[in-house]
Amino acid sequence: MTSRSDISAVRAALATQAVETPSWAYGNSGTRFKVFARPGVPRTPEEKLDDAARVHAHTGVAPTVALHIPWDKVDDYGALAAYARERGVRLGTVNANVFQDDDYKLGSVCHPDAAVRRKALGHLMECVDIMDATGSRDLKLWFSDGTNYPGQDDIRARQDRLSEALAAVYERLGDDQRMLLEYKLFEPAFYATDVPDWGTAYAHCLRLGEKAQVVVDTGHHAPGTNIEFIVAILLREGKLGGFDFNSRFYADDDLMAGAADPFQLFRIMYEVIRGGGFTPDIAFMLDQCHNIEEKVPAVIRSVMNVQEATAKALLVDAEALAAAQRDGDVLAANAALMDAYNTDVRPLVAEVRAELGADADPVAAYHASGYGKRIVGERVGGEQAGWGA
Amino acid sequence: MTSRSDISAVRAALATQAVETPSWAYGNSGTRFKVFARPGVPRTPEEKLDDAARVHAHTGVAPTVALHIPWDKVDDYGALAAYARERGVRLGTVNANVFQDDDYKLGSVCHPDAAVRRKALGHLMECVDIMDATGSRDLKLWFSDGTNYPGQDDIRARQDRLSEALAAVYERLGDDQRMLLEYKLFEPAFYATDVPDWGTAYAHCLRLGEKAQVVVDTGHHAPGTNIEFIVAILLREGKLGGFDFNSRFYADDDLMAGAADPFQLFRIMYEVIRGGGFTPDIAFMLDQCHNIEEKVPAVIRSVMNVQEATAKALLVDAEALAAAQRDGDVLAANAALMDAYNTDVRPLVAEVRAELGADADPVAAYHASGYGKRIVGERVGGEQAGWGA
Amino acid sequence: MTSRSDISAVRAALATQAVETPSWAYGNSGTRFKVFARPGVPRTPEEKLDDAARVHAHTGVAPTVALHIPWDKVDDYGALAAYARERGVRLGTVNANVFQDDDYKLGSVCHPDAAVRRKALGHLMECVDIMDATGSRDLKLWFSDGTNYPGQDDIRARQDRLSEALAAVYERLGDDQRMLLEYKLFEPAFYATDVPDWGTAYAHCLRLGEKAQVVVDTGHHAPGTNIEFIVAILLREGKLGGFDFNSRFYADDDLMAGAADPFQLFRIMYEVIRGGGFTPDIAFMLDQCHNIEEKVPAVIRSVMNVQEATAKALLVDAEALAAAQRDGDVLAANAALMDAYNTDVRPLVAEVRAELGADADPVAAYHASGYGKRIVGERVGGEQAGWGA
Amino acid sequence: MTSRSDISAVRAALATQAVETPSWAYGNSGTRFKVFARPGVPRTPEEKLDDAARVHAHTGVAPTVALHIPWDKVDDYGALAAYARERGVRLGTVNANVFQDDDYKLGSVCHPDAAVRRKALGHLMECVDIMDATGSRDLKLWFSDGTNYPGQDDIRARQDRLSEALAAVYERLGDDQRMLLEYKLFEPAFYATDVPDWGTAYAHCLRLGEKAQVVVDTGHHAPGTNIEFIVAILLREGKLGGFDFNSRFYADDDLMAGAADPFQLFRIMYEVIRGGGFTPDIAFMLDQCHNIEEKVPAVIRSVMNVQEATAKALLVDAEALAAAQRDGDVLAANAALMDAYNTDVRPLVAEVRAELGADADPVAAYHASGYGKRIVGERVGGEQAGWGA
């Protein structure tokens, strides 16, 4: 493993880490079968920011919060940004939503009807306006567009429509703004999704230009897909814009990052670091649904899981690994990687957190703080935030 | 292919076919992202029966309607049964629902808390009471029970609790009543589902006795699972109780039966027939969600797809197939099966429908009838039926 | 369905079809568990051409034969081409093989050792030399390169090496020659494959230029992948070079094309036609292993399956489909596609074959010809062709 | 985590562990594309035992070696057993092979031809004879039987034939002998495998009686299958006979146990321990192919991986876990499990090995021993062992 002298470099790198938490993770969510409401869930964007600020206070590495429009729509985004700052966090990526209006039954920017496409494009433009107001760098675009039945619509024509909408949004971006294009294998579309894989997202982003980048949601792949390979390829092509972290056993389960396959998360972070992607140019976001577990501590745990995976990846003895790879020594090379993975990095990240003024044991600190009980008591009445609001 | 003289036997068999349609297919449904409401959707169990009666009138082979409790709860089930009879259909399988109350967040009959288990069991018992009132033969049990995270609950203790509940319900069944136990790989549980595969359902049913049978939902398997093999095995073991037909490209997509892989549906029906399962002892039900398409004609199409697959399966030249199998002639045996599959059976099933007093072209007849437009005009106000109501 | 007047256009299109059969399909093949030898299997490239010529004679649409080097290495390729011509077929695509030498244990063009990479590149160059001699247009490149264990080698460095090799081969191509780059999810590499998906192949081909095109092997995808979507995208990007047809239930099963999912093959051919890909610019090849079935009739059946899928795809009523798509009528659009699929096109393709001077029932004609028995009698002694020779 | 006083119990449990290594893991293996031979590979069963003895000497927990007949056929099994004993190991499970004769192209005990079935049964009986001679307890049965094409053979008739053969072998077993029935999703059969899942194996074993038990090969499942659930169920039913450990990213990759998903291996071992399966009644075997890596150290690493997963599973704080589960505290329950998984157990298992008289660092000790170099020098000439010999 990495020598003692290098440990301080690892620690320094970890102190620079920034994981963005999503405002919607603090609200209610569920499956098509049931959304289980939880007492204490935020009712306003401000309350979501309060929760996110707790996550940052305890972990020290979650300084920004992603917004979802219209779920986080407010009259005054400047005021919202100030509210966030006062609580020690900042507004981050703006996520567009073109999948929850009745008009979008057959798609949004890929819809066969030009009027629906115009409406969807209008929303995307509005999101850039909001970015101007919040100072957000990134617009994250996920399209639920697709078809459920063979023949339902023309696959290629839908690409043409998609292309047109993306070009219009790209044109509208400011100099310091980017577009992050997300892909997803399936759901809610069940036959063909219009951006189903990294290749499709990549082809569009390539055509658009430097400000268009691909975002990798770790739950959006076919079974057996090697996600870290995609990460390595996109970094090599200069087209990786960021991550939506979560974990899955089956489909887009949206479980806590690192919960289903911690070794995979480690391998992904290893490729990020190896490919020069551990920089602010790559957005490290969570995108999760805490359907049955308490939400704030679930986000804390997820942030910690990303942090621990990063620590392990940073600990890989690059020299030993490279030497074994050069020699074609399969077992030694694998062992070099596994040595880092098998290390218990919890003491190390606890130290890092202490240095950052956060808590050695963030979950325990959260529970000790009484915050969870307080919000249950205070947030009574009103309408709880959820995917629909 | 089957000789001319045998065609009349095929036609006679097809005339006996009965596909049960689910009341909930006529209501609204969707994904976790959005339920798109559709004008004209039923607001009451009676209106669902009206729609189901249209499906039967046009196809001639959909004589019964499955109920879902509490979605189809009424004060007087005798009156509901009479209402159905007047419209030419009958009440069928009763489906229990122990997944939509807030209490069921961590499970129903497998919940760690005995009080929740009692409540769930009470609902199952109530369903048998309803069967007594409706004269339904089958109680269909699908449990969404499971866990999202490793460690969340004890896998084995949950089996013990499941076992206890099933035994209590089994005990309550009347002499002519059965319990159909459904399995499902995942969703809404994402780590471990308590009845995830046919083996688990089979083990429980075996222990319970003859009135407990396994039901195969065609959308509930892992990728690559050979469903017709399971059908053949369960028939051999005398443990196949019925089907929930639908189709899928990815997960439990609940698309129209036969829409995603018509060849698979044919192979399933072939094993049903070969294994002696084309009898009233096996319940052939649909379980689908028409999220974006018009519901009544979607059900009609699904019934037709099952019918066409059955016709093709009946057309297999059993003698030629058996001879080629005996000879180990791989290509000839495969060709014997494919010969039937490649046949256009639409004229044949049109004749069968005509004989049954239904329509040669059910979809066209439905549209010509003006029913679809009429319900849009008439069903205004009230609350549309859906998964939540 | 398509009107009567259009049927002649369909018939004319079918008469132009060309499916390339692979020389190795005529030899022995198997799984890692066992290669079952079959009497009568070719021992030389010439005998493979004899078999391929029978397939063309009976079907009328299999005019070319793909070679695999070194399996089909001969001293005089001009003589081999003449031999083919005399039998009514032509030499087609040249397939390189950089996976069966002991040197290639850790890869070929991506190997960590530059000497192995040079050797592999030398073989690729030799293949282009052979193309010069045979007059072949296409060089098909499939790399088994990859790693079995995380850490075994550097994913990104391997891409750099791959890139370098591809550039060198591209440079060597003549004006009328092309490079078809194949991708494959896994096998024989089990952790990371160096060209695992269409996106990776596309990114390389894009960089190389117009003469580099992606080839889609229908068995090389993750479960749930929508292959016809990839076809549509690659055609839109001008980067689809051809197909390796075969079929699969699980992994790269290499069964007869159309055997596992005939509906999928139809959907693929529909997108080919819709996207303007039914031209000689796209190479329609088979790549199959007839492990347990008789080889020549298995190839005949596969060619027929491709032909029938094409016929159905050509029969789609494009106008009706487009109208339903424009109206957002999901069921009508799906029905327009299914109407063509459900048609029994066997009489139609039989007519086409008759016009081409081939046989109405190619399999029956093959068996009637006595060829299968003859080769069993004649091809005694020598070493049978197989994957290893 | 487990308290200090409990650690000694963990250590004691680990000292009783026994992992059986397979004789064939020491020989050459590969994919259908290529078997890469490696210098120093054993040429005889005795040389395989030599290698296995090294694994046990270094790890202390691999005391038995599984045989594969006919690959390990010898004239005098008593002498072979004595040879093993002298080297500090014992002969273990006998594995039958009914997939590598030309007769088995269409199956063995499920073959349509009774003569082939008789031959296969004869081999199985011979394996029991060998068990009598070696004193082996377990006969492991894996059948490659299945079909590649729909219609190829009758699925149900094949079950009848299978049933008949199993009954005959069961009858032949001695009082202290068992039959372990293995299942596998696919490969080498590509359409339907005759024992494809645990349910099928379970149904047969249940009918046969107590001496028939199911064996779980961790690489033999469909994507997304929860293997530890199957383990829990089979233990609950008293029908788990043992494991074939290996790991996989895609299909039956046969990589080193714990290499692809160490968290899964931990979860499996947790269910083993929780279900009372950490006893000699359960056979813990490896079944792997070291296609590209050095074989003896690969087996050592695999044994260590199983050992480390077991250590972590033993460290789970059962009380804390049970309390959190009882409370329905999803996050706390998951955290209790993860706490053990995240522990670096390498120092602990090193201590255990030291106590057992083995090596703290087995891989380093193996390399330091010079054994690997010695066998390369000594094992020259002769025919290397492999899957085919």
Automatic annotation (TrEMBL), chains A, B, C, D:
A single BP term in Gene Ontology: L-lyxose metabolic process
Q: Which domain of life is it from?
A: Bacteria
Record-linked InterPro entries:
L-rhamnose_isomerase (IPR050337), Rhamnose_iso-rel (IPR013457), Xyl_isomerase-like_sf (IPR036237)
Q: Which terms does the record give in the GO molecular function aspect? A: L-rhamnose isomerase activity; metal ion binding
The UniProt keyword set, sorted, is: Isomerase, Manganese, Metal-binding
Q: What is the name attached to this protein's record?
A: L-rhamnose isomerase
Look up the coiled coil feature and give its residue ranges.
none
